[in-house]
Structures are given as structure tokens and as C-alpha cells.
Design a protein that fits this description.
The chain is of the alpha/beta class. Helices cover 36% and strands 13% of the residues. The structure holds iron/sulfur cluster (SF4) (2 copies).
């Protein structure tokens, strides 16, 4: 194959798996993946075959340049596949391990977890990410089932089962127009429920009716497509982050992990944040659909971002090839003037390109819709981050900031 290979050994090869296309037992109002089914409407069976599972497992392990290999099971809802599918996946992983250390993570809405599932997850040391948007009324506002009924009670039952079996779990919460107004209720809920690691995702979508039935806008759609009503505003997002940060920096540094704050501290310290949203480049994680099609990113599962199919190309060529390299680089190369001049570009990096549909102060396209919120937040946290970075430089714990704030030896402003 003539594909040019670029920087092949710079990081682990990582692919999210979709064992069952976009199918899900819930119908969360802002789910960006449900309508991906329309991409494959000509095919009627949308589950990963045993032959593909076998091929992917072998190819994925053997494409790695590092000893650790991470399998991430994603959806749709990956629990739409029976436990027997994942037992088979583990069997294949053991068969093809070839000295690698293999880990698995599962990203689920949690509503279908059972004792049997949790026993399996615990026995095999899987990490589970649960989608939950906070207390009951916050979560049930948009995360509903196919009949329009609420889902929070079932998610909490799933979390209870994970805790009962000692399964390691994280929360993945969407911040929307509703829960963004209650940052401390939201934050305390996760702490009170034994969550140790919280991932925050601001929801921003625009509505455009496409001929194939999709209604969420892509970057190719016009700048003036209307925002979906559930989207968080830049002001809400900034205020939300500031309120939670002020609580975290006084009480929870080193005890409770908020991914956004971890990423910011990493960027302040000049370390790769590990999360594409706040990294300089995209393309850290490809996606493989149930039929072997591989795409550049979970948020760019569109025909123009298809890298190929595992039956006709190699994971190595697709993920380290020229097309993915261009996709990765575009994140920085497409920043508008305002970002390039911004004092906080090193920490924000213009966030995710999927949200860059605003105009900058010079009228250039490509500014992140949430920019105003990010800028306020970054301006607010800068002195705290400077202090924690100095701590790291001195090989001292950043958590010392809590005591320094209490005894007045550090004052932010
Ligand atoms: S487009 Fe967004 S989600 Fe995808 S790799 Fe880039 S930053 Fe990450
Ligand atoms: S805060 Fe705004 S201007 Fe600065 S890098 Fe982020 S999106 Fe760009």
C-alpha cells in the first residue's frame, strides 16, 4: 500500500469500538450518535460479527508499539450486545495477547447493568464510564427512554450495582442549558455518590435538516444554523466552570478529579493533557463501526472522514496515514486570528473543532462558540494554575494550594 506513513511511533494506536452501531435503549435528546444509523440504512444487520471481532482483536494488538493495549467499548449502547459477546472478546484478547498488557473500558448509560454484568466487569478489571448528568431532575430533563420516560432511577440502580461489586467507575456528564445553572448542586451530587473522576462535556449542537434524515449540523453546514435549545451558552459554561473550580480548589485538589481541571493543569505544566479537546492536535482516537469502517474521530463519523475499512486497509495505515495526519493537524492550523493572539491558547487550543462555528473579533470564521466562557474561566483560574505549576516545578503537591488559601499565604486576586 502506497499510503505515506507519518510519525508512526509517537503514541499508542487507539480505536474506539462500536460493537452495535448507534442502537440504544435510551433516546437522550442531545445524543449525536443515534442518527449515525442513517449512514448505514441500506444494511439491515448492525452488529459486529465474530469474524470482525476476531480480526480486529488480532490486528489491533499487533499494530501496537507499546506493551499496554486499551480496548474501549462504546456505542450507541454497548450493553445492547449480550455478555457472551464480551466474554468472547476477552477470550480472543487472551489468545492474541502476545505479551501485551490488555485493559478494557466500557462507556455505558448504565441502565442495563445486572449483578452478572458487574461480576464480569469486576473479575476482568474493566473500567466503566457512566453517562449521568447529575441529580434526578437534571438528568431526566433530556435523558429519556424510547417511550419518553425518565432514566435516572435505572442509572442509579446501575451505579449501586457497580459499587456493590467494587467495579471501578467514572461519571461522564453532559452540561446543558438546564443543569449549567446549578453548578454546586451538580458537583456535590457526584461527590456524595462516591464518584472519584468526573468528565464534563459541554453540549453544543445546531439544527439543520439533511436530505438523509439527519438533523444535527456538521461543520460543513452554514454558520447561521440555529442552535439546539439544549445547548449550553458560552456565559453559562464559563460561570459553571468557575463555580465548580472555586469549590474544587479549596476542598478537593488531589481528592476528586475533574477532567477539565486536570487538563488545564497539564497544559499549564507543559504536559500533554491526554484529552483531545484540550490538546494541540486531534486524531488521538479513531473509531471502528460494527462493519469495520474506520473514522477519524467519534465526533466526525461522516463519509468525508472515513479512513477506510479494516478488511481493505490496515489499522496502521489508516490511523498513521496522511488523511488522519491532516485531520490531526487541522485543529491547530485552522485556529482563527483571535485564538492565535489569545493569552490562553496554550491551555484551550480552541477546544474541539466541532464547536468552531462562530466568527472571531476580526470576522474570521472558525472561532469556538464557547470562547467567551472559556476565556473568562481561564482568566479566573490563571493565578491558581500558576501556583500549582510552581508546586509541580518544585516537586511539591499542587494540593498544597488548599492550605495556602486557608491560611492566607496565597491570595488569587
Ligand atoms: S474533533 Fe474534537 S473530539 Fe475529535 S479528536 Fe478533535 S478535539 Fe477530539
Ligand atoms: S479562549 Fe477563545 S480565543 Fe482563547 S484559545 Fe480558547 S477559543 Fe481561542
Amino acid at each position: 500500500m502506497a499510503t505515506e506513513i507519518l510519525h508512526p511511533f509517537s503514541r499508542p494506536l487507539y480505536v474506539l469500538l462500536k460493537p452495535v452501531d448507534a442502537s440504544c435503549n435510551l433516546r437522550c435528546k442531545y445524543c449525536y450518535y443515534l442518527e449515525k444509523q442513517k449512514l448505514y440504512s441500506a444494511q439491515d444487520k448492525h452488529i459486529m460479527s465474530d469474524a470482525l471481532l476476531d480480526k480486529f482483536t488480532y490486528d489491533y494488538i499487533h499494530a501496537q508499539t507499546m506493551q499496554e493495549v486499551l480496548f474501549t467499548w462504546h456505542g450507541g449502547e454497548p450493553l445492547m450486545r449480550p455478555l457472551s459477546f464480551y466474554k468472547r472478546a476477552m477470550q480472543l484478547q487472551r489468545q492474541y495477547a502476545d505479551g501485551h498488557i490488555i485493559a478494557n473500558s466500557l462507556q455505558t448509560n448504565g441502565t442495563m447493568l445486572t449483578d452478572e454484568w458487574c461480576e464480569f466487569l469486576k473479575q476482568n478489571n474493566w473500567l466503566v464510564g457512566i453517562s449521568i448528568d447529575g441529580p434526578q431532575d437534571f438528568h431526566d430533563e433530556y435523558r429519556r427512554n424510547a417511550q419518553g420516560g425518565p432514566s435516572w432511577v435505572k442509572v442509579m440502580r446501575g451505579i449501586k450495582l457497580l459499587k456493590k461489586h467494587g467495579v471501578q467507575w467514572n461519571a461522564m456528564a453532559v452540561v446543558n442549558d438546564y443543569n449549567a445553572d446549578y453548578p454546586l448542586e451538580f458537583y456535590n451530587f457526584f461527590k456524595e455518590n462516591g464518584c472519584q473522576y468526573l468528565q464534563l462535556t459541554p453540549i453544543v449542537e445546531r439544527i439543520v435538516e439533511h436530505a438523509d434524515g439527519r438533523h444535527l449540523a456538521t461543520l460543513g453546514d452554514s454558520d447561521d444554523a440555529p442552535l439546539a435549545d439544549f445547548s449550553v451558552t458560552p456565559e453559562q459554561w464559563g460561570d459553571f466552570l468557575i463555580a465548580i473550580f472555586d469549590e474544587w480548589v479549596r476542598h478537593d485538589v488531589g481528592r476528586f478529579y475533574v477532567e477539565t481541571f486536570d487538563c488545564m493543569l497539564a497544559n499549564w505544566a507543559g504536559v500533554d493533557p491526554g484529552i483531545c479537546m484540550y490538546g494541540k492536535e486531534c486524531g488521538h482516537a479513531g473509531v471502528m463501526e460494527y462493519n469495520g469502517d474506520v473514522y477519524s474521530c467519534d465526533h466526525f463519523v461522516f463519509p468525508e472522514y472515513k479512513l477506510g475499512n479494516i478488511y481493505t486497509s490496515t489499522l496502521y495505515n489508516m490511523l498513521y496515514g496522511e488523511k488522519q495526519h491532516r485531520f490531526s493537524q487541522l485543529k491547530h492550523k485552522s485556529l482563527p486570528q483571535q485564538c492565535l493572539e489569545c493569552d490562553y491558547e496554550f491551555a484551550c487550543h480552541g477546544e474541539c473543532p466541532k464547536n468552531r462555528f462562530a466568527r472571531d473579533r476580526y470576522g474570521n470564521p472558525g472561532l469556538n462558540y464557547l470562547c467567551k466562557g472559556y476565556h473568562r474561566f481561564l482568566d479566573h483560574i490563571a493565578p491558581y494554575m500558576d501556583y500549582m505549576k510552581q508546586q509541580l516545578d518544585r516537586k511539591q503537591p499542587p494540593a498544597a494550594i488548599m492550605q495556602a488559601l486557608r491560611d492566607g499565604t496565597f491570595k488569587a486576586k
